[in-house]
Design a protein that fits this description.
alpha/beta; Rossmann fold; globular; single chain; three-stranded parallel beta sheet; 8 strands
């Protein structure tokens, strides 16, 4: 299972060379080693960013892949390479296109503490607990409240999908790509409201300019992975996702680093 990559859309716009070297060059080196050592199966962490601005929502796997940022392009480059590796070397793979991974281990052992933190829910929790005000990148999108719409999927549900994908490959399944999302769009303002409700605290925020490379709306159709692999999200409700993140952060005070926003 290959999770290692750089993943900031904004950073990829400013440093495309670094993103291609790390995400494409690094993965090709991994594939070379897998072929050399006869490792037969790969579960690849891809992204909804391969779609760019979707033609329609919810986004199904058969929609055209037209990334609008280098991050999405690097993931799509690997997705397009993998069928060639299957034909030439017998390396079969499943690509899982994450939408917005969120939440924390429900048992409280593992949570999200990046340095710096770039994900919306932990940044909103930080703003609610005395940290810096949350920056909302763009409040003038063509959406009901002007902020981006995204599909948040719990990390436990992502983990379940990886197990199902590996099991399918071991049973002889053909290479495939699947969307991993709940199929429910939420705006940035809605996330702020949920974080405020779950924490019981105000989330201080301020509008900031749009980030380059951010589509207005991204949310998934997950019908394919449900039908072919039997995946069912256990945390489909945004409030439940936020609650797991909040419980982890309460149990690990001081997890936010200075300058995370």
């Amino acid at each position: 299972m290959h999770f290692a990559a750089w993943l900031s859309v904004g950073d990829s716009v400013h440093d495309p060379a670094g993103y291609y070297a790390n995400n494409v060059g690094g993965t090709l080196a991994l594939l070379e080693a897998m072929v050399r050592e006869s490792v037969p199966h790969l579960v690849f962490s891809s992204t909804a960013a391969v779609f760019g601005e979707p033609e329609r929502v919810p986004i199904a796997e058969d929609q055209p892949a037209r990334p609008i940022n280098p991050y999405g392009e690097t993931k799509l480059a690997i997705e397009r390479a993998l069928p060639h590796y299957a034909r030439a070397y017998g390396l079969r793979s499943v690509s899982l296109r994450y939408f917005n991974a969120a939440g924390a281990d429900p048992e409280g052992d593992l949570g999200e503490d990046h340095r710096p933190e770039i994900h919306l829910i932990p940044r909103a929790i930080e703003a609610a607990t005395g940290g810096r005000a949350l920056q909302v990148f763009g409040d003038d999108y063509p959406t009901p409240d002007g902020t981006c719409l995204r599909d948040y999927v719990h990390v436990t549900d992502l983990a379940d999908a990886h197990h199902l994908a590996l099991d399918a490959l071991e049973r002889g399944a053909s290479p495939a790509a699947y969307n991993l999302g709940n199929g429910r769009p939420h705006s940035v303002r809605q996330v702020i409201e949920v974080v405020s409700r779950v924490t019981g605290r105000e989330v201080r925020w301020q509008a900031a300019p749009r980030r380059p490379g951010d589509p207005a709306v991204l949310f998934a159709s997950n019908a394919k992975i449900q039908g072919e692999l039997g995946w069912r999200p256990r945390y489909a409700d945004l409030e439940a996702i936020v609650d797991t993140a909040w419980r982890w952060h309460r149990a690990h005070p001081g997890g936010f680093a200075e300058g995370d926003c």
